[in-house]
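Sync notes, pocket subgroup
Present: LS, DG
LS reminded everyone that the earlier model was apo-only. Rerun requested with 6-phosphogluconic acid included. Inputs:
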Amino acid sequence: MGKLICFEEEADLVEYAVKRIRQHIQEAMNEHRPFMIAFCGGRSPKGLLRAFFSLRLPWRDVIILQTDERYVPPNDKLSNQRMVRSIIETHAPEALESFLPMDTGLEMEEAAQRYEKLLRGLLPEGKGPDVVVLGLGDDCHVASLFPGFHHLKEDNRWVLPVEGPGVEPPRITLTPEFIRSGRYILLLVIGRQKRSAYSRLVSQSADVMDCPGKFLLHLPQTEVLLTADACSDSKE
Ligand code: 6PG
């Protein structure tokens, strides 16, 4: 079962997350292998991204992946890789060559297959990335795994294109199959606007098809980090 950890402020949450990520960096270095981390997009990871790229790391031994991407050009304001790249350029430009974004210049299915091939080439059989960082969407989605979509039941592919009603722009996403292989999974629930999604995440009535983030809760390697204003019972 995953852990739920509540923090008074986002800064405290970020400090804890960086401490835990550093533990996994050390583990990878001790095993003489690259440290691999996947970041989602949106607002939730921004504080952690800034703190992570402010670390003094041997960036040539780090691989930075995406959990999902909007199918827009890389310089589009909606692009997740544009957001991540901008933070890297500001805090650790030497890490740019370690960043492996999804290629939205390709046709969607091709882009998904290429990213999956890249992942399979980087990861030894049966091993996953060291850390996966996800945000909780207002509709309880994580990565680009949306309520009711078949992607939630995919048990072979690691990366899939996502198109359908309400998904605009279309997306490319890691699948639960791949995310579950992560050694440490961080789900960030930050801000009072996440109250409704959080209460569905922890409610007994919703299932994974209603609230995709739920698949993470059953994993022992998951830690849900939330700010006090996101907990439904927090004071006004
Ligand atoms: C995306 C993200 C998505 C995001 C959540 C939370 O492409 O939008 O990868 O999964 O992390 O929707 O988004 P916010 O942090 O902006 O609320």
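DG: The two ends are 30 Å apart (CA to CA).
LS: Strands lie at 3-7, 35-39, 62-66, 68-70, 131-135, 159-162, 171-174, 184-189, 222-227.
Action: DG to write up.
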